[in-house]
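Format notes (please read before filing issues)

Several people have asked whether sequences and structure tokens are stored in separate files. They are not. Every record keeps both together, in the order shown below: the sequence lines, then the token lines. Line labels are part of the format and must not be stripped during preprocessing.
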Amino acid sequence: GTDPLTGCVNRRALENRLRTDWRIAKRRGSHVAVVAIDLDNFKTVNDSRGHPVGDIVLQQLAGIMKATARDTDTVARLGGDEFVVVLPDTGREGAMTFAERLRHRVEEFAFGPDSAPVEATVSVGVALAGGTDPISPDVLLHEADRSLYKAKAGGRNRVYS
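Then the structure lines:
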């Protein structure tokens, strides 16, 4: 259930956790938010600095996400440079606050080796489901991904909901 490079949960574990959090939100009448995160222009890092530096950047990004998330949140790597964070019991304001805090921390961080740091930014898409919303976990993931691509299309290094 864990991605070996980043220590984040993998896609299968993410889907299980999201279904569980979604069912709890439905039962309690609370919310669950999904935040999709993608490193901007990550291919350039791999192409210009090599995959070992790219791996360091991914590990450092995972560390920032885990440090920003609460103990009850789930940080997952879907593959490549795409990540998802599930925020149970989190409404729109809390999800947007989390997303902006994460975006800012990434923007300020010096990635890569200390001797040759790499600047990096993230684009972030946010989707939300209330306990009474007729939305499935799969649709919620899809909506977060759609918001992520709107953030990228809007100029990258931004949050879109």
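For reference, the curators noted about this record: The radius of gyration is 15 Å. The first helix runs from residue 11 to 28.
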